[in-house]
Amino acid sequence: MHRKSRLVLLTGILLCALLAVNTAAQANTVAVSLTNYSPNFTADLSVYKGKHINLLDFDNKAKDTTLGSYYSLDRKTHYSGSSFIDNYFWYSCEKALMSLGMVVSNRNKPDPHAPGVWMSLKSMSEVKFEVEVKLQKFIYGASLTKIYTITGENLPDKAEQRTKEYLEQRAYNMTSKLFETILNDPEFKTMYLKAVADMAPSQVK
């Protein structure tokens, strides 16, 4: 075989191998999109309607993730979107709070009469989310620091039932469950409502 023919053959084999690897990677990727996330709560969270909050930060300190992905326990499936994980959670949290009728401000233009919330991802996988939440009166210091852990619904036993569509929706359900768990926690609710009352602007008589 001529050198040119061998080179063409080798190039073809390499391209096929790269295509196979890329196809396999895509087959194990579940797209998690802010656009497709729709908050879904089962608890009565009407107490938050009309309340103000500063959603100041949502950083990713989870060592079991990358900047843009989190994984199944066997690392064969990864969940990622068009932005970093912390961005996805900040904007999905904003979306969830606004769906309850809350008025959400951010650190670029904070509301001086609203409590501030910081959230840090501590651990993330297909199985569970672990997040540290800090609630405080803006400027004054933390009034509550607490870690919340939620788990996802059990995965189907049959592999053919674990479709990308199913896994994507399951990820969104876990996102909603995380925010609902925080907001429905009696300790968080009590401290938040107290901060709202304490920080309300003085009424002019």
Describe the structure.
The chain is of the alpha/beta class. The chain is built from four helices and eight strands. It has helices at residues 3-27, 85-99, 164-184, 186-199; strands at residues 29-31, 52-60, 69-71, 78-80, 103-105, 116-124, 128-137, 141-151. The protein has a five-stranded mixed β-sheet. It has a three-stranded mixed β-sheet with strand order 1-4-3. Strand 7 (128-137) and strand 8 (141-151) form a beta hairpin. It is elongated, with a radius of gyration of 22 Å.
Short précis:
By secondary structure, this protein is of the alpha/beta class. It has helices at residues 3-27, 85-99, 164-184, 186-199; strands at 29-31, 52-60, 69-71, 78-80, 103-105, 116-124, 128-137, 141-151.
State the helix count: 4
**Residue share in helix:** 25-40%
Shape: elongated
Largest sheet: 5 strands, mixed
